[in-house]
Amino acid sequence: MKYKSTRGDVNSITFKDAVLMGLADDGGLLIPEELPQISNEELMSLKDKSYQDVAFYIMNKYIDDIKEDVLKKLIDKSYKNFDTDKVVPLIDLDDFYLLELFHGPTLAFKDVALQFLGNLFEYILSERKQNLNIIGATSGDTGSAAIYGVRGKKGVKIFILHPKGRVSKIQELQMTTVLDKNVFNIAVEGTFDDCQFIVKEIFSDVDFKKKYNLGSINSINWARVLSQIVYYFYAYLQTKESDNLDKINFIVPTGNFGNVLAGFYAKKMGLPVNKLVIATNENNILHRFVQKGDYSIKGVVKTYSPSMDIQIASNFERYLYYLYDGDHQKVKGSMAALKNDKFIKFNDLEIEKVHQDFDSTTTTNEETLNIIKTVYERNNYIVDPHTACGVDGALKLKDKLDEKFICLATAHPAKFLDAVKVAIGKEPEIPERIKELFNKDKRVYEMPNDVNAIKSFIEQNIDE
């Protein structure tokens, strides 16, 4: 399996090279040259397998330059620190299923991909006797999961940008209390989109990127998406519907499009999916895109679900490649229009094509609190604010879409104590690993919203 860029100027690179490159050198995103198919017979052969076995089966179809026994060891190592043998258990709440993706070290779905990616980096760098300097932006959970994925790893330094004061207290502590010498937390005066823009600008400076051997741990890295494809298959195999190969809906709280994109790939590979529902908060650019083809950037509103307080979805370009039937020039044109004009136009045929795969909902702050309260009263179960947006969407669409929903539960409610307390009048039970954070020392570097200032800081602390 080889990889290529959505913009057409990078082609036929190996999986290992794709992992280390992160963002393609032409500014595009790396995608597989072909999509492997999984038949119904293959799917059913995975039904009683462990998460690790399913992960190996799916990933092995995309990776041909890592020996199978090595890949198995990397997968086993990546998921040994989860607090359940199932890794991502499925809970049946009658009206819908809930896929708990928060059993990793930082209690967020990002752990599923970033524990694997951290081990992958260490393996490839050791094999090649290289160093890597990782640059990433976070709206909350990516940063802590990335840091926990690579902390203390040989040959790796990580620089994570987060918007100052715009992540939850727990998310901030999970990042800033990691004092390993290879970890640098940067609090930027601005929004997540500002942080993400800085990262993309740094990567677009190809000479700088190559000189300092920069790599990405954001969801622009293909290995992140690949890791997330797995849990769509594993979730489906845990449902009653899978006994008859019935289709099912997935509802995905997302701002950056990476999580739902993994579901899109799973569907294209043959998973029996009816609709992928994008659940947004009041920063609803993806909802506007799905419903009306309106992909225009507006101001970011602060909400109870800060990880989705985003306007520029970094993985959207990968979907555009498929929406445009592989037209590289059209992808380039649309991304240029987004940068210059702050919007992308879509015609009626393109919008119709979007509707074949996606539906979407948007949830207000008030609705978020109401859903947390409703699920608690009905099911004695507490969801975090991001998951609440998904549940809200499932309840809004249950009469429109007949098939049952799997809602992706993206974070442990203890990461969002304030919102939960407002919703139900009390805090959720706090895991011991969260309690410990409040007594730890912190280290963070506060910096202006300026690309050159960030580049200068990185240069001062980097490994060439």
From TrEMBL:
Positions carrying N6-(pyridoxal phosphate)lysine are 110
So what does this thing catalyse?
Answer: O-phospho-L-homoserine + H2O = L-threonine + phosphate
What Pfam family is a match for this entry? THR4_C
Q: What class of enzyme is it?
A: lyase
Gene Ontology molecular-function annotations:
pyridoxal phosphate binding; threonine synthase activity
Please give the biological process terms from Gene Ontology that the record holds: threonine biosynthetic process
**Under which pathway is this protein filed?**
Amino-acid biosynthesis
Q: Which cofactor does it need?
A: pyridoxal 5'-phosphate
InterPro entries, from UniProt?
Answer: Ser/Thr_deHydtase_PyrdxlP-BS, Thr_synth_N, Thr_synth_N_sf, Thr_synthase-like, Threonine_Synthase, TrpB-like_PALP_sf
The protein's Enzyme Commission number: 4.2.3.1
Which UniProt keywords are listed? Amino-acid biosynthesis, Lyase, Pyridoxal phosphate
Family label: Belongs to the threonine synthase family.
Q: What is this protein called?
A: Threonine synthase
